[in-house]
Design a protein that fits this description.
about 200 residues; 4-stranded antiparallel beta sheet; globular
């Protein structure tokens, strides 16, 4: 076994700053990321905990423009429907929000949870099967933090039709869509969430 590392006060301060500056990015520069960077970030995400060591995450890098367009069209339909849920000033504010970076982000990954996996032999999910989904969310968070360390922005798009995305990517029916991630160099950085800056929600 290797020696346990010592995380000193300086590291603790840096880690606190990392958490504060990990923001949901929607505005990206278009230049590509360096070769191999996504692979390194995914390798770090793979260190994430998972129920029963099931590792149910499935990362699909979406590079074909037709597949990306299908996802964008899904977003546009869902976003228009969501706008109808609001009225007055809240509707005007919603319509002004930029809620995705799907045209600009050079890298895009659809993240699925494999509900058919036999890895882990069902440990820890007999009474809480949703732990598979939660394991994928934990891995996404780990990817997000690793990306921020590298100066890379990540945006999580959830205003989508999961079945339409799964079919466009020819994913197996037992794969559940958890996230569509837009990834790239951010246009600007802030430690204040964009929805707070836009006046949508103040937070706690």
């Amino acid at each position: 076994m290797s020696a346990s590392p010592v995380f000193d006060a300086g590291f603790a301060q840096q880690f606190a700053a990392l958490l504060a500056w990990r923001r949901d990015v929607r505005r990206f520069r278009r230049e590509p990321l360096p070769d191999g960077l996504i692979d390194r970030l995914l390798a770090q995400a793979e260190l994430s905990p998972s129920v029963g060591h099931s590792q149910p995450w499935r990362w699909v890098r979406v590079r074909e423009e037709a597949q990306r367009e299908t996802a964008r069209n899904s977003f546009q339909r869902c976003n228009a429907d969501a706008l109808g849920d609001y009225e007055g000033e809240r509707a005007r504010l919603y319509a002004s929000l930029k809620l995705e970076g799907m045209r600009e982000a050079p890298e895009q990954i659809a993240v699925f949870c494999d509900h058919g996996t036999q890895q882990g032999h069902g440990l820890g999910r007999r009474t809480m099967p949703e732990m598979l989904d939660y394991s994928v969310v934990a891995a996404i968070t780990q990817f997000w933090l690793a990306a921020r360390v590298a100066g890379v922005g990540v945006g999580w798009v959830s205003i989508l039709e999961p079945d339409a995305v799964r079919e466009a990517l020819s994913a197996p029916p037992e794969w559940k869509l958890i996230a569509w991630l837009c990834i790239g160099w951010p246009e600007a950085e802030s430690d204040v969430p964009e929805l707070v800056r836009a006046g949508w929600e103040s937070g706690r």
